[in-house]
UniProtKB/TrEMBL annotation:
The keyword Transmembrane applies. Interacts (via C-terminus 330-346 AA) with GRK5; this interaction is promoted by 5-HT (serotonin). It is a multi-pass membrane protein. It comes from Callipepla squamata (Scaled quail). It comes from the Eukaryota. One of its GO terms (biological process) is system process. PANTHER family: ADRENERGIC RECEPTOR-RELATED G-PROTEIN COUPLED RECEPTOR (PTHR24248), OCTOPAMINE RECEPTOR BETA-3R (PTHR24248:SF66). It holds the Pfam family 7tm_1. This is 5-hydroxytryptamine receptor 4.
Amino acid sequence: YYAICCQPLVYRNKMTPLRIAVMLGGCWVIPTFISFLPIMQGWNSIGIIDLIQQRQFNKASNSTYCIFMVNKPYAITCSVVAFYFPFLLMVLAYYRIYVTAREHARQIRVLQRAGTPADSRHQPDQHSTHRMKAETKAAKTLCIIMGCFCLCWAPFFVTNIVDPFINYTVPGKLWTAFLWLGYINSGLNPFLYAFLNKSFRRAFLIILCCGDERYRRPSILGQTVPCSTTTINGSTHVLR
């Protein structure tokens, strides 16, 4: 999304299948190194093994049960890599996208005014009004998506860091509630994007309806529109 918005003319050259594969692979490799591998090796329990063993035994039923606890270094490292650093990148990326979109809209308005006949310059600019509405909706969409992400995951990762420093006194039910709140965010995302973004909604309809042509966007450019080529950053692009 960032590449399409901020660098559209060189998008196909930069977002190659290999680069996309590396990015998708990183989405699995990074969690493996910050969650699966350390936990399976027991790095999260270094220094708190005695405390874990005490809590594993239930005196009332004279039995043991699974207890998952993390020490201070792992709590900080995991939370920073899994939430705080990605959250910072998301904020910066969405901010850059929003600023770029506003700049594009401003340039479009300038071009529209330059091409408007003299006798109609005093009439309301419908294109500018529509563009401003689109900017406002885009800003609201980004705020809603980022707000839901923060509200759903922040309680868990804040508690994840705080709990080791207050001698693990956070109630277990509260932990479970915060964890499921984060899971709910993943369930909300498809609905947020589908209801707030026409392009995503159209894409979902095409996928769910097996490529039904009714939901495909009609081509704005006719087949008879002349083409020309231009070179940008060393790559050749076709302009219609």
